[in-house]
Amino acid sequence: VHLVESGGGLVQAGGSLKLSCASSVSISGIYAMGWYRQAPGKEREFVAAVNPSGADTGVVAFLKGRFKISRDNSKKTLYLQMNTVSPEDTAVYYCAAGRYFGGTYYSSESDYDYWGQGTQVTVTS
After folding, report:
1. What pLDDT score was predicted for residue 51?
2. CA–CA separation, 125 vs 110, rounded Å?
3. Rounded (10°) CA dihedral 117, 85, 98, 26
4. Number of alpha helices (DSSP H) and beta strands (DSSP E) in the chain
5. 20 within 8 A of 3, measured Cβ to Cβ
């Protein structure tokens, strides 16, 4: 599984950005997927995740209401809609995929086997 993120860039505070993560293989019904981010000098942190069907999603509490995760299995693509961004959202954003073994969505890094190279998001004030 090869994952490629896109959509990052420079955005002003209060603006919106939509990240995409394209998979090299079908992700339908097989892979749970998630977004993580790593800000300069900080550890990588969980942002959001979705189960294989897209029916169950989860966003870390402090980003709820601003970030939304979705997937289009027909396009083999994962998305992260980021709204009302702030400079604190500046980070490299990574998508991840892991084999699904049931449950809802996965928030632990150890649940994911495949990672993209990351896309930089920089929010200016």
Report:
1. 96
2. 34
3. -80
4. 0, 11
5. no
